[in-house]
Amino acid sequence: MSVPCPFDWLGQECKPKHLYHYARWHWIRQSIADKTITLSDPSQCWEDPTEWLWTRWIKEKVAPTVLAMCWTRTGRSEALWRLERSQINVPEQDRTVVRIRTNFDRLSRAVAASIDLSNQLPGKSFLVPVQYLPDHRVARRFDQLSATKLVSSEAARALSYKRYPYRYEREVRWVHITKACVSERVAVRIDINALIDQIMIDPRADMAEADRIKVDARAAGFLNELKHSRLFRLPSRLRPFATRP
Q1: Phi, psi angle pair for 172, to nearest 5°
Q2: According to the model, what pLDDT value does residue 52 have?
Q3: H or E element that contains 148
Q4: Which residues of 192-216 are buried (b: 16+ CB within 10 A; e: fewer)?
Q5: Using an 8 Å Cβ cutoff, are 28 and 200 in contact?
Q6: Could you give the CA distance from residue 135 to residue 141 in angstroms, rounded to a whole number?
Q7: Sign of torsion over alpha carbons 154, 53, 12, 100
Q8: Of 31, 144, 149, 224, which has the highest C-beta tally within 10 A?
Q9: pTM of structure
Q10: For 182-233, what is each residue's pLDDT tens digit?
């Protein structure tokens, strides 16, 4: 019988009520249809060079593989919609973004029930809120961690330190430490309906596109809440004044 994968919260503050992940609909639809979620190697898929340092340290000192998935505490942000939508080399017809929502309990239960994680990627999972620090404090943390006890929790905590210019992200990271050797991206089978309680559709999508996504999501097997973002809709009493000059 498989042992459920441990899942620990490494933050000192209270767990956020909700966690969000912004991605293009193409990828989320594939996840729903395949009943998978994708974890990535930070040293291969993330852009901040300090994260390559943490990942290399983990691989050398703790375990050969570290995988992660980024979530955010921010559910109301035009910038996050726009950043995801504006990725280069993306066809115009595939730029529609959705925001998926979960929480600690949902994520914890889904991780514990994933046979792929417990059998193919045996190890430990952590939910790590990111701390945004000035460069000199990031360097100090790296020196301190190099001298700490080499355990999985400290390895995961290393990925909680990020440079101050990225603070707008308000990230919370799912970090998985495993001795299995895998590629830079791994799709693990997981109960999507247990994990995701809401899909919010791009505020820039028109009604026809939003309706198409709703139909596609149901056809792929998503059973929970589907909504179209109202980010660009003014309160009713202001609408008469909002005429474009």
Answers
A1: -130, 125
A2: 80
A3: none
A4: beebbebbbbbbbbeeebbeebbee
A5: no
A6: 10
A7: negative
A8: 31
A9: 0.88
A10: 878 889 999 999 999 999 999 999 999 999 999 999 999 999 999 999 888 8
